[in-house]
Structure formats: C-alpha cells, structure tokens
Amino acid sequence: MRSSSVAIVTGASQGIGRATALRLAHDFSAVVLAARNKDELQKTAAGVNAAGAESMVCALDLREPQLAENLVNKVLDRFSRIDALLNIAGAVPQIDLFKMTDAQWEDGLALKLHGARRLTICAWDALKASKGSVVLISGSAALDPKPAFAAVAAINAAIIVLAKAFAEQGIKDGVQVNSVIPGAVMTARRRSFFEKWAPAHNLSIEDAMEKFPEEVGIARFGKPEEIADLMAFMVSPAAKWMTGASVRMDGGEIKGI
Ligand SMILES: NC(=O)c1ccc[n+]([C@@H]2O[C@H](COP(=O)([O-])OP(=O)(O)OC[C@H]3O[C@@H](n4cnc5c(N)ncnc54)[C@H](OP(=O)(O)O)[C@@H]3O)[C@@H](O)[C@H]2O)c1
C-alpha cells in the first residue's frame, strides 16, 4: 500500500464502482466513496476498512453542479490530498433513439459526462500537486453505436474525447488521464439492459442472458472485479507513462482494430 495516498471513486455503492473501491483499498491508504445510496456506500466502506484502508462516505447526487466542489473540499479538509480520481458513476438511459426525450438525454449527460467533467476540474489542482491520476469510464457502445442505445453510445464516445482533452492538459500539469472502455459486465445496470433486450429478441430474461454472449461474439460476461483490476493498474506507479489512452476490456466484443 502507498503511504498517505487518497483515491476518490464515484459510483462506489454497487457494481464496477464498488469493486474498484474494494480493489483500491489494497493500494491506497484512503478511499473516498461517492454515490447517492448511503447504506450501500457504508457496505462498501466496511469492505474498504477490512482491507486495511480508511474510508470516507460521501452520499451525493453528482448531477447537482455545486456538489462536486463540496466533495473535493471535504476530501481535502480530511486528507489534504487527492492522488487518484475514478469517475465511474453513470446511469445513461438505455432508450431507443426515436423514443428518447430531451429530458432523458439531459439526465444521462448530467451525471455521466458533466458529473465526471466537473469533478475532474474541481480536483485538478489537488491532482496537479500530487502528480495524480484520473480514469473516466466509457463503454463499448461508443465503438458500435446502435439506435436502441444511442445515448449510451454518444455519451460514452464523449467520455473518450473528454479524457483525451484532459490528458493533453495533464501532460503539462503532471496529471495522468485515461479512459477505460468495458464491454458487457454483469452488474445491476447490465441486468436492467436485458429487460429491454430480451423482449426485443422474443426471449425470457434468463434465456436472453444465456444467448447474449454468443450473439455479440464473446465467451462470457465480464466481472466488475476484472474492470477494477484494470483501473487499479491504470492508477498504479507501473502505468505512469500511460496517458491519453482509451483501454478496451470487452472479451473481444469489438471486432475492429
Ligand atoms: N455494466 C456494464 O456492462 C458496463 C459496460 C460499459 C460501461 N459501463 C459503465 O460503468 C459504470 C458503472 O456501471 P455499472 O454497471 O457498475 O452500473 P451500476 O451497477 O448501475 O452502478 C452505477 C453507479 O452509479 C451511481 N449513480 C447513479 N446515479 C448517480 C447520481 N445521480 N449521483 C451519484 N452517483 C450515481 C450508482 O449509485 P447510487 O444509485 O447509489 O447513486 C452506482 O453506484 C457506468 O458509468 C456505466 O455506464 C458499464
């Protein structure tokens, strides 16, 4: 474990964010856990503490513009530093392009794009001071957009672009910024995807989950822990020269080069 090192993980109440917080507890002396559900964050915090790191629970809605600055101030008041920021929270509606309302687009953008953008900017000076690392989470829909989930694809594509733009500034400021592009990882969000995918393919949810990997050309779903291990590497000293990268981990789903 690195002495006096602080990581912020958003979306830490479940899924990939929780797995990442638990994994980072082995590398960082403190892990800050952000999402809305305080009870679930406290469960993650217990796991972080059991792994030997300090935890700090911050229950907040990252769509609220002023809360990013509050979060960073609270972290700096308690720990005086930020070494890594992992922007994982995301809940872009998975709705057909021709049915999705402006309000649903705005909601998806408000959390996944603007939440991550704002928090990264608010934490930037602290990350500059620590020569820290940022990871933003995209998704393989960005590389294979379909009308059934166009907002997911478009916002994930925007995340890759945003990470690249931050990375360019980071070269001057000593802040490393990358994005990760996961494929189908089995979480609550992925299960909710099958509520739409299954009826569209005339399948029960169970049958759809069994058929899906073959349909998209993968051997199996990914596990949150596998994405967590990748992100832990991306913010580790071993990956320090990696910046401006968008790293795919999708079981081979994206067939293009
Ligand atoms: N699972 C996949 O197959 C997959 C594939 C590609 C990319 N991704 C991306 O990976 C990220 C995590 O996905 P997941 O599958 O782990 O999803 P998940 O299980 O649904 O977790 C989403 C996380 O975001 C948090 N969140 C939602 N709304 C929030 C808000 N307004 N403010 C603060 N936090 C909020 C949730 O916590 P609360 O509800 O407690 O707020 C939760 O911790 C997402 O950005 C997703 O797009 C997932």
Task: Supply database-style keywords.
8 helices, 257 residues, Rossmann fold, alpha/beta, globular
CATH architectural category: 3-Layer(aba) Sandwich
- Poorly predicted regions are none
Small molecules bound in the structure, each named once = NADP nicotinamide-adenine-dinucleotide phosphate
Q: Helicity, in percent?
A: 40-55%
What count of helical segments does DSSP give?
Answer: 8
Q: Regarding CATH, which class?
A: Alpha Beta
Measured distance between first and last alpha carbons: 36 Å
SS class? alpha/beta
> Rg from C-alpha positions?
18 Å
Order of helices and strands: EHEHEHEHEHEHHHE
Major sheet strand order: 3-2-1-4-5-6-7
What does it look like?
- 49% of the residues lie in helices and 14% in strands.
- It is α/β, with parallel strands linked by helices and 257 residues long.
- It has one domain: Rossmann fold (3-Layer(aba) Sandwich).
- Helix 3 (67-79) runs parallel beside helix 4 (102-130) and helix 4 packs parallel to helix 5.
- The structure holds NADP nicotinamide-adenine-dinucleotide phosphate.
- Residues 11, 13-17, 35-37, 40, 61-63, 88-91, 111-112, 137, 139, 182, 184-185, 187-190 line the site of NADP nicotinamide-adenine-dinucleotide phosphate.
- NADP nicotinamide-adenine-dinucleotide phosphate is lined by residues 11, 13-17, 35-37, 40, 61-63, 88-91, 111-112, 137, 139, 182, 184-185, 187-190.
What is the element layout, followed by pairings?
Layout: E1 6-10, H1 15-24, E2 30-35, H2 38-50, E3 54-59, H3 67-79, E4 84-87, H4 102-130, E5 133-137, H5 150-173, E6 176-182, H6 188-200, H7 205-216, H8 224-234, E7 246-249
Parallel strand pairs: 1-2, 1-4, 2-3, 4-5, 5-6, 6-7
The structure holds NADP nicotinamide-adenine-dinucleotide phosphate.
